[in-house]
Design brief:
This protein is of the alpha/beta class and 366 residues long. The protein contains 16 helices and ten strands.
Length: 366
């Protein structure tokens, strides 16, 4: 492995660690997840909000169905600036918010913690940095430990946040009489390892197709609309291509009109409530002569590239697997397009960027 912590190969090394990251979250050796599940169960929480920015916001959106379905806890994913400045006054009673930030430095998420607590609600920080500004603002910490090897787009840290939230939902569900979610989550590390193996070469094929285009659209529905957002983000962060994201249905109403022959569309369509509609959309993509890049446990396209998911999992936890081909494609796109490093062009640019996203300002909520 390169000793350059900004080398692009850091990203691939961290992707390959993901099955172990999943297993460590499930092991919960210090009992943090179990403790918070017990607390949420026993204190009569009736509503859950998951909040953050970037990958953290996507992780919240991706896990809401699992909490609502299995933990019997109505759950919403709200972006941190929207929670802090637009929704916080109107949260229902008995709401708990969980704010996600691996670094704990993101200013808007810390602002959300301050505003949520100011308006009489409990706020828990899911972070790798308990002493950060988010940890200090929240007071309550659900720690996450994911090894990082250097500076690269988030992949293993994203899965760590997903798995921690899914495990929390599973523990709450078990306290309420159902172990189904936890039982299924225990199969995820092995399925993740197999999904990575199946896609190591196929992701290169997909990246080779995508590298010829400047604009790539990612589409998904339900929990995997969040996966579409994650896939697009890896293009911005890695190869620095434009990646748009939208709902599977909305593509037919909007991006369709800008889709030409040979335009690649990344379709995230695991088994679940929207698979039949995804099949119809893929048929339309093929009718246009565009190129579907399909991430699914079913082969629903006759052309393009199929990036398979190992085995079968319930739709509500499928983001654990769908993000894996997306991560590999993001890495290989960066490599194919000649990216050698993820570092900033100079220290001044790095400082300005992080000052912007870490700055803690407190707005007046609407």
């Amino acid at each position: 492995m390169s000793t350059n912590k900004s080398d692009i190969n850091v990203m691939n090394s961290e992707i390959q660690m993901i099955p172990d990251v999943m297993q460590n979250c499930m092991d919960d050796v210090h009992g943090h997840i179990a403790k918070f599940a017990q607390s949420i169960h026993e204190t009569g929480v009736e509503h859950l909000v998951l909040t953050g920015c970037g990958d953290s916001a996507f992780a919240g959106l991706a896990t809401t169905l699992a909490f609502t379905k299995h933990a019997q806890l109505p759950t919403r994913g709200i972006h941190a600036i929207d929670l802090a400045r637009y929704d916080v006054r109107y949260l229902p009673k008995n709401t708990v918010a969980i704010g996600l930030s691996f670094s704990g430095k993101v200013g808007r998420t810390a602002e959300a913690a301050i505003q949520v607590k100011k308006h009489g609600h409990r706020f828990i920080a899911l972070t790798n940095a308990p002493s950060s500004q988010l940890g200090t603002a929240a007071g309550e910490i659900l720690p996450i430990e994911v090894p990082t090897l250097g500076f690269s787009p988030g992949t293993s840290s994203y899965v760590g946040m997903l798995m921690t939230l899914f495990a929390l939902a599973g523990n709450i569900a078990q306290l309420r009489g159902s172990s189904a979610l936890l039982d299924e989550l225990r199969t995820a590390p092995a399925l993740a390892a197999e999904t990575l193996r199946l896609n190591n070469d196929l992701a290169v094929d997909a990246a080779t197709v995508l590298a010829k285009h400047e604009w790539i659209s990612f589409i998904g529905a339900g929990p995997n609309e969040a996966s579409a957002k994650f896939g697009a983000a890896k293009l911005f962060e890695g190869p620095q291509q434009i990646g748009s994201h939208t709902n599977i249905e909305e593509w037919a109403h909007e991006e369709y009109f800008a889709t030409k022959e040979h335009t690649p569309i990344v379709v995230i369509a695991p088994s679940g409530a929207s698979l039949d509609r995804a099949q119809e959309i893929v048929n339309e993509i093929e009718f246009l002569g565009a190129i579907p890049i399909v991430i699914s446990d079913h082969k629903i396209s006759q052309t393009g590239v199929h990036l398979p998911l190992a085995g079968h999992v319930s739709e509500e936890i499928s983001p654990l697997l769908t993000c894996l081909p997306l991560s590999l494609v993001g890495f290989h796109l960066a490599r194919i397009r000649g990216k050698e490093s993820y570092n900033f062009k100079d220290e001044e640019t790095r400082t300005e960027h992080y000052d912007t996203i870490h700055r803690l300002t407190i707005g007046e909520p609407a």
